[in-house]
Amino acid sequence: MSRKLFGTDGIRGVANEKLTPELAYALGRAAGMMLRRHKRPLRAVVGRDTRRSGPMLGAAVESGLCAVGVDVTELGVVPTPTVSYAARTLDYGLGVVISASHNPAPDNGIKLIGHDGCKLSDPLELEIEALIESPESIERPTGVKVGWIEADRAVVDAYVTALSAMVPEGLGGMCVAVDAAHGAAFELAPDVLVRLGAEVMLTGAEPDGVNINAEVGATHPDTIQRFTVETESDIGVAFDGDADRAVFSDERGRLINGDRTIGIWSGHWQRHGKLEPPVVVGTVMSNGGFERFLRSRGVQLERTPVGDKYVAQKIAETGARIGGEQSGHLIFPEHGPTGDGLVTMLELLRVLKREGRAAGTFVDDYEPWPQVLINLSVDRREGWDTGMRVRSALDRAEETLAGRGRLVVRPSGTQPMIRVMVEAETYDLRDEVAGALVAAMRDDLGGRVYSEVDLTHALGD
Asked: Considering 134, 154, 241, 261, which has the largest number of Cβ atoms within 10 A of its Cβ?
């Protein structure tokens, strides 16, 4: 059965248009009923980012949960990982995050997190969708059995304390530039850095409800790259809107994406005999040059489809200590089962502190292969690869790249787009293959190039 509402990262859409309060209320009721069916604690914890629509949608979800007898703890504005931390460390059956992550401010989303701190499984999401479609099957308790809502940020303090304990060496003497994307990390990121003794240069920390991710944050790394140089900081870090990812700038303004972060971190702990097993997890988007670099040091790269839930699954299967995406969405299973931008920041800063080296000294460890990501806006994602021209172009591309590159073409899980990633040994070969594919998709699908990003020294996923 295919999902109608849930994408790869919850339910997303323009708030009050596709993602309405009515849908949020129905989702809350259905999710609460799912808890009842599976005999899980009838308690939920809810957090949100800084979007103007967040309180509206949060109130609707919370009302739906209470309507089936689920008590709600409201955290207010917090990073997504804070909700995951609360769900897995306290007696909550469910975590709810109101956020559209890196999307623009008019969008919003609802992510559901299980009592283990992980995003809900596909079968549970399907069960919730079925309950939304049959509201008559959902219970309606009355009186004292109706759920209760209370605001309590005690768990937020516990989360920050846990983060601070990650770096026993402290960060004294380090100057860190922070771009909080006017999002969920605008208070907690500088707080934990100051606690650890770092000097903080802060930008993107004045949320007004409509400026989240607007030319700032992890999806606009040029801002932190420029800001790091301007403030003469030792390193810069940029979060996305809900702070489950982080990317970095070295002191010279060069981007350190997820691949490079994994390379720096794994290299340090391998040298200290603590990368066991010698495996890291990436995605189909992880750069071929990065994979070759790891292989030369005896470290195996395990690839997964794009999506942090797949990375988490592979980490569990392999026992890897780190995994993630070029976009900076990294998972350190020692600290939790999902991506956490603040954890990623502290893990990298700790390595730099222990090494006593500037971030820039790691950037030339390897040269990435030329890689491009083209997003094509299409009217329909279903059956995108069944047309004659597209099918033929895909076959030719695979043949041309055999042994000299890689091709990943997939529909977006959250937007009406087809994503085309081409990687090759040379720029000419990359561009030749990408151009032929895009032309075929224009013919068969009426596709329009929405964006084209050279990922060679940039972000993916």
From this structure: 241
Q: Which fold has domain 371-454?
A: TATA-Binding Protein (3.30.310)
Q: With bands split at pLDDT 50, 70 and 90, how would you rate the model's confidence at 329?
A: very high
Question: Which residues, in sequence order, are CB contacts of 194 under 8 Å at separation 6+?
Answer: 200
> Quick one: pLDDT band at residue 3, thresholds 50, 70, 90?
confident
Nearest to 291 by CA among 182, 236, 371, 217: 371
Catalytic annotation, pick one of 53, 84, 99, 101: 101
Domain spans, the chain: 11-157, 165-365, 371-454
Q: What is the DSSP track for 25-82?
A: HHHHHHHHHHHHHTT--SEEEEEE-S-TTHHHHHHHHHHHHHHTT-EEEEEEE--HHH
pLDDT, position 297: 92
Q: What are phi and psi of 382, to 5 degrees?
A: -65, 135
121 is catalytic: no
Tokens encoding 240: 């996305």
User: What one-letter code names the amino acid at 13?
Assistant: G
Sign of the Cα torsion 406, 309, 212, 344 reads: negative
- Tokens standing for 441? 């998709």
Cβ atoms within 10 Å, residue 428: 10
Q: What is the pLDDT of residues 297-320, one digit of tens each?
A: 999 999 998 888 889 999 999 999
DSSP secondary structure letter of residue 336: -
CA distance to 49, 215, 239, 248, 289, per residue, from 182 (Å)? 9, 10, 9, 17, 33
Is the alpha carbon torsion for 8, 11, 13, 14 positive or negative?
negative
The H or E element spanning position 126 is: helix 122-133
Cα–Cα distance, 337 to 324 (Å, whole number)? 11
Token pair listed for 261: 């972060």
374, burial (CB in 10 Å: exposed 0-12, middle 13-18, buried 19+): buried
Count the helices and strands in the chain (H runs, E runs): 13, 19
Instruction: Select from 3.30.70.250, 3.90.1150.10, 3.40.50.150, 3.40.120.10 the CATH code of 165-365.
Output: 3.40.120.10
The pLDDT mean for the chain works out to 94
For 11-157, CATH gives 3.40.120.10
